[in-house]
Amino acid sequence: MSFTFQPSMVIKPLSAAILASALAWSSSSALAQQDDSAQSPETGSALTTLRAERQAAEARDNARLANLVDDSEALESALAQAQEKLAAARERRETLEASQQELNQSLAEIDAQRESAGGDLDAVFGVVAGSSGELRDELNGEWLTLGGAAELPPRLEDDAILTSGQIETLADSLMGLTAETAKVRELNAPVAAANGDVSDQQVVRVGNLVAFSQGQLLQRQGRDGLLAPAGHTPASVAEELKAFDAGNGNVVPVDPTGGQVLQALAQQPTLWERFQQGGAVGWVVVVLGAVGLIIALFQYLYLTRLSVTTRRQIADMDNLREDNPLGRVLKRFHAFGAGHAPEALEARLDEAMLAEQPRIERGQSLVKMLAAVAPLLGLLGTVTGMIVTFQSITVFGTGDPQLMAGGISQALVTTVLGLVTAVPLLFAHTALSSRSRALIGIMEGCASAVLADRLENDRVASDATDAQVKRHALV
Known about the structure:
Elements: H1 7-37, H2 41-139, H3 164-180, E1 184-192, E2 198-206, E3 210-213, E4 216-221, E5 226-229, H4 235-245, H5 260-267, H6 271-276, H7 279-315, H8 325-334, H9 342-360, H10 364-396, H11 402-474
Antiparallel strand pairs: 1-2, 2-3, 3-4, 4-5
Helix pairs in contact: 1-2, 7-10, 7-11, 8-9, 8-11, 9-11, 10-11
């Protein structure tokens, strides 16, 4: 239901209202005139003033009414123009709707023709376009496009009908890339150094496997695929690459994992870096181990020298020397003189041997103690490392494993250092103990033999003295 505004609907009631008010005012003014005749002169003057004001108001109302009549005509004119424009717009809309309907009908006819002409090819086109895009994404950043004429396959639209030219371009691209996988190319290309400087260098590319320059493996960075040295190239790999580049070798190291092995090698710490992961506890363990090994080495050399001099003394028992413990013991024993009881001689001999044992067993207890302390220090480093790890978990959580790696590395490295230090110290202590026991055994054997000879000689001399005393008594 529509409603059309008509100015006459407003003007007519308004005119009626104005006429009614005018009639009312006329009647009231007539009554006022009748009343004026009965009023005083002052009252008549006031009524005259009011009458003049009333007439002025009536004049203003008449002028306003005339203006309203003029505005209504302009409004009716504008309204007529708007109605004309509305009618034109409706006509145009109907025309466009008809055109759209015709276009939809034409599109439906084209789809039907496309489906009837080659509906099965849509799936083929979709697969080709998808495969081309996937292959382009996978090969982007690979070595095949470096220094060769091969290009990446074009990116095709899935819902479009492929032309023969696009299919030929795709086939040419695939054949070119396949041919590049079997070629070794040498070219000059810009290579970015570690400090950011870019310079042209001679680059060797082997298929899609590897590219290197000056013995360093290369990698592609950024959208532009700028060449840059890999993080870490092992020394053996660098030598083989240089030999291949110089024509002296036919072996090229290849990382079949796509750089993961090289990345792992680059992150592998050196021996010095791994040692530093042990922290202060690791340093203490290593210092104590070094002290123990130095003591063991010097004591072992001392015992070796004693073994040589002792064997030399055994070979020449008539000439007792001071450069070996056996000579010193026997010289001290012989200095005790004759005429002593066997118990006294044995005690003197034990005393002389006990005086030599501290020098023979010197350092062994310290080496043994260090061998026992090193694993305990390693265990201490393990505990402190785990404390650091748990503190990292408390502060940062378990989201980043690298934050926990420091404490775990310290724990493991200190444990390894403790065991590595304890094992050689135990071997050193065992070697020192064996050699010292051998020397002491040799001294005890020789000393017992000398004591036995001394006691036998004393007994023979005593028997001879007793026999001589008896002969003198019989005479």
